[in-house]
Write a structure and sequence with these properties.
The chain has helices at 11-49, 60-71, 89-100, 133-136, 148-163, 185-198, 200-203, 219-228, 253-265, and strands at 51-55, 75-82, 105-110, 167-169, 209-211. The protein has 276 residues and is of the alpha/beta class. The chain has one domain (51-265): Rossmann fold, CATH 3.40.50. It is globular and about 65 Å long.
Length: 276
């Protein structure tokens, strides 16, 4: 009778090799899993550290500021206001911009500054039209809304603290603007110092930074920056006195500065102006 062939490899050797392979594979998988978990935790922490609140009106400057914040790697949280201004068109523009630029969240806060009035934007005061560029930069016009940026920044500060964000972006400029006192570097610096005295986060060591990346840029330079960052300026609205459907008047200070900016930037103005 023929006997079956017998393996010359000792059984104990096969078993030991299999065990070593299985254990090493398990250890490798476990280490990779732990590494992935650590990387995910780090990414989550990094994302939390890089959140920013961006004040967004729907105009050229705030839209470009949102694009800058995104380009710098921040997860952006856009904040707009329905504050009793003459029209709702700019809020709708802000909604379009927030979607187009990928804001993680967009809040529109309703406050009624018409209760106080004091501005052509919140009271029955005529919006200045057809002023020269020289006149626009001289004095503080009636389109100034008392303490508006202070109010808006306070809301942004509160939301930033809730979000665990340490950065706020604001699209103010001290060049090619209407002379508003709350668009100046000294105001922004003073507000930042106050904010870092006034919040739990700051007192515990998480200092707030207010970013004003456009503050020393002309309107033309702001437009060029936005174009470079892929901004679609046809979504934006700058006009103080648009029609109900959002057509710009073409004659208020904001429209005149906008037109000048596109002209000097050598970029076609995509604004839809009122007929006639």
């Amino acid at each position: 009778m023929t006997m079956p062939a017998v393996s010359t490899t000792p059984p104990t050797t096969i078993s030991l090799a299999a065990i070593v392979f299985a254990v090493s594979r398990h250890v490798t998988k476990s280490a990779a899993h732990d590494t992935n978990r650590q990387l995910m935790a780090f990414d989550n922490t990094l994302a939390m550290m890089k959140r920013a609140v961006v004040l967004l009106s729907g105009g050229i400057d705030s839209t470009t500021a949102l694009a800058v914040a995104r380009q710098r790697g921040f997860e952006t949280f856009a904040l707009s206001f329905r504050y009793g201004q003459r029209h709702a068109a700019e809020v709708e523009a802000a909604r379009c911009v927030a979607r187009a630029l990928g804001a993680a969240r967009h809040e529109v806060i309703a406050i009624d500054l018409r209760a106080f009035g004091g501005s052509a934007l919140t009271a029955d005061i005529a919006v200045p039209k057809d002023r020269s560029i020289g006149d626009i930069g001289r004095g503080i016009p009636v389109t100034y809304v008392p303490a508006r940026n202070t109010i808006f920044l306070s809301y942004a500060l509160a939301w930033a603290e809730v979000l665990g964000a340490h950065d706020i972006f604001l699209g103010v400029s001290e060049i090619d603007y209407s002379g508003y006192p709350d668009c100046r570097p000294e105001y922004i610096g003073a507000y930042e110092r106050m904010a870092n005295l006034a919040t739990k986060a700051a007192v515990e060591g998480q200092k707030l930074k207010i970013h004003t990346p456009l503050i020393h840029l002309t309107k033309a330079e702001i437009i060029a920056e936005g174009i470079a960052l892929g901004v679609d300026f046809s979504l934006t609205l700058s006009c103080y006195d648009p029609t109900p459907d959002g057509a710009a008047c073409g004659r208020c200070d904001a429209c005149l500065l906008r037109r000048k900016g596109f002209e000097h930037a050598g970029v076609a103005d995509p604004t839809r102006y009122r007929a006639g």
